[in-house]
Structure formats: C-alpha cells, structure tokens
Specification:
With 313 residues, the protein is an alpha/beta fold. The chain has a domain of 218 residues: Thiamin diphosphate (ThDP)-binding fold, Pyr/PP domains (Rossmann fold), CATH 3.40.50.970. 46% of the residues lie in helices and 10% in strands. The chain contains 12 helices and 7 strands. The strands form 2 sheets. The chain has a 5-stranded parallel sheet, with helices on both faces.
C-alpha cells in the first residue's frame, strides 16, 4: 500500500508539472489551477472511498479527479478539449466528470460544490445505502453562506457528508488572515455539533488516519464529519494571474520537510528507497506521456453531436 499511495501522489505531481509545461507552450488554453503541494489530501481521502462514493471537487480539481478515478488519459484529453476526454471535451479543466467512478465534477463557483454534495448525501440516506459524499473546498469557501447552510442541514438530518477543507492559506490572491476571522475551521463544525479533526494536510499518513475516522463515523450513520487540512498552494492561483506572495513564505513551504512526497518517503525509507522511487518515477512519466500522445491523437468533438446531445427538447 505504501508504494501504491506514493505512486498516486507522484502521478498527480508529474501530471500537474506536465500540464504546466504544455499550457505555457500554448497547447491548450483557459485558466489552469494546479494542485502541486496538496497531493496528500486528495490521495488520503480517496484511498478510503469506493467507486460508489461521491466526490465533489473545486476549480482546482485535477488532483481530486486523478485520486478518485486514476484516469490520466481521460483527464489530459479533457484539457485538450478532445472527445475522448472524461467530459467529452465539453468541460475542460474545471468541469471534469466521471460518474462511473463517483467523481461528480469540479465547480468554478467558490463553495458551489458543497450544496451539491449535500444532495448526494441526502440521496444516499434516502435510498438506504452506505454511500458517502465527500466535498473538497478551500478556507475561502468556508466563509460562504452555502457552507454554513449545508453544514446546518447535514447536521440536522445526520447526512453522510464529509466536508474537507483544503486550508491552503489563500483564497485566490487573498491571504487567510485578511479573509477568515479564525483559521481553525473545525470551530465552525463545532457550532453545528459536527465531529471534526484538524490535520497536517501535507502528511499523507496523518490524512489517511483522519480519513478512516471520518469515513467510519459517517458510514455508521452518525452524521457528517469535517476535516480541516492545513496545507499550502505552491503554484500561483492559476495560469493567468500573477503570483504576489512573499518570497520567504514560498521558500518556507517549498522546503523538503513540507513537501507531501518527501514527507511520506522519509516516513518509509525502506519501502521507498532511492531505487524504488526511481522505478516509480519512470512508470509514472511513461503513463503520463502515453496519455499526452493519446490526447494529441484524439479528435475534437463535432459541433453537430454537441447540439444533438444537449438540444432542448
């Protein structure tokens, strides 16, 4: 499991680095929100879920998609706008979907996925299944009305919802100190009587342990659970906005001990020795390059098919 989890984080890291390279090379367009530095949260949570469980993502959703579906080809093809993409080329970076794997899409609206995840949680409870609905969001979204309304209703109805705050210290370009009165998001869960944990979001071992507790709690019918995952967004908010964060702050978070991959490798030096890591890196790079060539060779969706599929009856 150790090698598998490390490889999943590595896949997200190399995926995003390759995407950044191609984006800067003009191979595709639009706003690209990279997940580099937050890989442990997506991998840790999704490692405890099945295909029947639901995940609702954000504008920064590539990592969530890969952790839940392991579909590199569908993800890259979607970024290229090709019909072989996970959303058939219609969605792009912020709107990846894969319902068969329980991935219910990203959302360009801050906090927009939270009430949608609430609906899936209600559906699971209404149908009497043991499905779990997980929603990722940032600390900026915790200031939205949708967050509070959804948590209140989830607590009231004891819905199987896991709310995962990726507390990466910035809402776009606004630092947390200027947007959030109290950086401890678990206190907001306390206000609604919801169980919660605050964890180091860059430590995969810690995230997995917290995810296990949350999933067990929710599947047992005990109502919602909130995880406040402390992390940092290493890359700029997106590819079209200049990064103006303090250089010393960036340098601090880019130290090896704060990197999710390095942290996990340091915890498991025997299983993740240099030879093993090198082999995993080779496998992952090959997989991603194969997906890139697949996307490049794929066709763009036909306009007539789009009109036929989405025409109002």
């Amino acid at each position: 499991m150790i090698k598998k989890y490390y490889k999943r984080m590595l896949t997200i890291r190399y995926f995003e680095e390759r995407i950044k390279q191609m984006y800067r090379g003009g191979e595709f367009f639009g706003a690209i929100h990279l997940y580099i530095g937050q890989e442990a949260i997506a991998v840790g949570l999704c490692s405890q879920l099945s295909d029947n469980d639901y995940v609702f993502s954000t504008h920064r959703g590539h990592g969530h998609y890969l952790a839940k579906t392991h579909d590199t080809k569908g993800a890259i093809a979607e970024l290229f706008g090709k019909e072989t993409g996970c959303s058939h080329g219609y969605g792009g970076s912020m709107h990846m979907f894969n319902p068969l794997k329980g991935f219910m899409g990203g959302n360009g609206i801050v906090g927009g996925g939270i009430p949608l995840a609430l609906g899936a949680a209600f559906s699971a409870q209404y149908r009497g299944t043991n499905e779990v609905s997980v929603v990722f969001f940032g600390e900026g979204a915790s200031n939205q009305g949708t967050f509070h309304e959804s948590l209140n209703l989830a607590a009231l109805k004891k819905l199987p919802l896991i709310a995962v705050c990726e507390n990466n210290r910035y809402a776009a370009t606004t630092p947390v100190a200027l947007s959030t009165s109290d950086e401890d998001i678990t206190k907001r869960a306390d206000a609604y009587g919801i169980k919660s944990l605050s964890v180091n979001g860059n430590d995969l071992t810690e995230v997995i342990a917290a995810a296990k507790k949350a999933v067990k709690h929710v599947r047992s019918g005990n109502g919602p659970f909130l995880l406040d995952c402390k992390t940092y967004r290493v890359e700029p908010h997106c590819g079209i906005i200049a990064d103006k964060r303090p250089e010393d702050e960036l340098a601090q978070w880019q130290k090896p001990e704060n990197d999710p991959l390095n942290c996990y490798q340091a915890q498991h030096p025997k299983e993740l020795n240099s030879a093993t890591v090198a082999a995993l890196e080779t496998d992952v790079k090959y997989e991603i390059e194969e997906a890139v060539e697949f996307a490049r060779a794929s066709s763009f969706p036909k306009v007539e098919n789009f009109i036929k599929e989405f025409a109002v009856q």
